[in-house]
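User: Can you write out an input/output pair for a complex, sequences first and structure second?

Assistant: Here is one pair. Inputs:
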Amino acid sequence: MALIRERLTHMLHQAVKDLLLESGIQNEEDLKVELEIPKISDHGDYATNTAMTLTKVLRRNPREIAQAVIDRMEGRDELLARVEIAGPGFVNFFVRPDAWGEVLKDIHEKADAYGVQNLGRGKRVQVEFVSANPTGPLHIGHGRGAAIGDVLANILRACGYQVDKEYYINDAGKQMQTLGRSLYLRYLEALGVPIDFPDDHYRGDYMKDLAREVLDREGDRYKDVPEEEALPFFTRYAGDRILDGIREDLEAFGVQHDIWFSEQSLHDAGEVQRTIEALERAGYIYEQDGAKWFRSTAFGDEKDRVVVRANGMTTYFAADLAYHKNKYERNYETVIDIWGADHHGYVPRMTAGVQALGRKASDLRIILVQLVNLLRGGKPVAMSTRAGEFVTLREVVDEVGKDAARFIFLTRRSDSPLDFDLEVAKMQSNDNPVYYVQYAHARLCSVFQVAREKGVACSWDVPPDLSPLHQPKELELMKLLGEYPQVVASAAEQLEPHRIPYYLSDLVSCFHSYYNQNRILGEDEALTQARLYLAAAVRMVLRNALGLLGVSAPEKM
RNA sequence: GCGCCCGUAGCUCAGCUGGAUAGAGCGUCGGACUUCGAAUCCGCAGGCCGCAGGUUCGAAUCCUGCCGGGCGUACCA
């Protein structure tokens, strides 16, 4: 049994199709119909503006079209109590109250898989996120990108895409040398050798910690080794250890990448060179002032970009081109990059790059994540990266918990800047939406606990009679539960994970309100069974949605 | 200068692929625990959707111009 929304959409779609055929029009584009939930309940459970959008094609007035559409909706009486034409030409649908129970049966039947669908049809998608340079610990801005990337990937998986989560390690180039040298100098310092620590080196305390670690493990064996000989060890050591730390911090944050991809491996395999050659053959490379330029202006970038400098070194951008070429060679149909918004200037050149490599611009989707302002009690926390004074992601997770941190990162559109207040994140109140949602789940678990203690049946081979559910709040809950798959689908299509937390807040708000004015476990056995069945469905959806967010669904709190 | 993002209630933000009377949380004020969890609920108040034009049956949403804030404008990584 299909869900209410799907059935109605289908019915409407057929009716519009018939109407267009009768009028001799066969235009697929005019056939898309959309159902919205009106803001005002007097306007029905669902409404469509399709009659208005059809006025231009059919050249008739919208209310007439609306009537014609309604007349062609077959089997509407089974599902609908009433259909109205309203305002300039809206069609408002009032679902039969007894039809909503189908939603609950559907949820019980699908259980964990409720919300899972097959929009993607197995299409391979890669989500690349975090990809912070392995030169220091992750900070809170990386956390936001991590949460968004991780959850977006989860959502796409739930929608039938075959998704890999990938981390690009910038382990090549001068910054790694600088990193190694920073460690080397701290090592000497720890041995009591006077050093001069340059400003452009990595000054954070974590480098001193690492230096002590090297000292413990290796003793003073590098003390008298010439710098050029010692550096490779220190570079590799620093890079590996910092990357380990990043991995651990992500793990503590609930994020696991499937693939860790090394930039150096592209250089080692000659892929950077090959990519430049491929672009040369395609005619997108020219030489000027001793450098090789990529003609990104051919695809709308504001200027061309250097890929090989006059000194013969390839640029970072060249490696990025090779990396993206490599992604498509690994057969990803769509590649999603999650970048800090401070990199937005790179979007046109990267988009140009994938097109020059023979892909559609839309094969690369870039999500820009705005910066995070870290606050404590409303006051900004100093965040100077160079001085190494930043608050790390790990510190934030340790202080406020992974659930609160993730939820807060996700409760905002990614292109909106985010104020992250450590005190608010720790508050166990409604200031903090994560507890509001988790509390509902714990509450429901508690109800089931009590039910079991009282010996009330609360698992069902066959659905109970749902006719006792007819209160407005009960119908509203069922309707909201029925919207969940649609919410997941739209989050996937629009690449907007924040839709899930907002949906959860709505659902939970409705539930809490209902809970406060009704008892689930009561004298009336039939009513109790029906309400428990509803409650179980709410709990199921909460679990599924929180699972997508990587936020726990506690039984007690 | 040019480019991108943002400007919605006192605060933090949804709504933006055009739809009917613009929403939520916080904060203020006032109510609800002998009951399955009060980390909850109920109610009151709060708006020229930055400003000005345009597009059309209809604009917070699309277009143009301004104002204000953030970011970016390398043969750096």
